[in-house]
Write a structure and sequence with these properties.
The protein is α+β, with helices and mostly antiparallel strands.
Length: 130
């Protein structure tokens, strides 16, 4: 089986959650880490991420997630060109990089849809507005 060449700048369709069919994954950066191997830094755009901490309660993007190749292989469907040139992901990457280097952060191996569900669960556990 041929390994796909995932490279920074690519936009992909993926196995989305219901109602987010127009969402896209954009590959932002790839690092090689001694413990984890290939780590891809992606943005997940066009989502409806429940987040009580943002106005309206829905966040339209997850600007940074660190994922393994396994996440891409189980989630991505079709390369649809280049992603946006947005740089919002860099702040999340910087926070992740410091935490990862300190041993306080990891890398997702879940599907993209499962990552979004996990993030919603963590945000909700941090205290829903009542």
């Amino acid at each position: 089986m041929t390994r796909l060449a995932y490279t920074p700048g690519q936009a992909w369709t993926y196995r989305t959650r219901p109602g987010e069919e127009d969402s896209r994954v954009v590959i932002r950066k790839m690092d090689i880490e001694p413990e984890d191997g290939e780590v891809f830094h992606v943005s997940i755009l066009g989502v409806k991420l429940r987040n009580h901490k943002v106005p309206g309660g829905l966040q339209p993007a997850m600007h940074h997630a660190a994922v393994l190749r396994a996440t891409l292989e189980k989630s991505l469907l079709e390369h649809v060109g280049d992603g946006d040139a947005g740089e919002q992901w860099k702040d999340g990457y910087a926070v992740w990089r410091q935490a990862y280097d300190n041993g306080d952060a990891g890398v997702f191996d879940l599907s993209v849809a499962d990552i979004l569900g996990y993030i919603e669960m963590v945000v909700a556990a941090s205290g829903e507005a009542r």
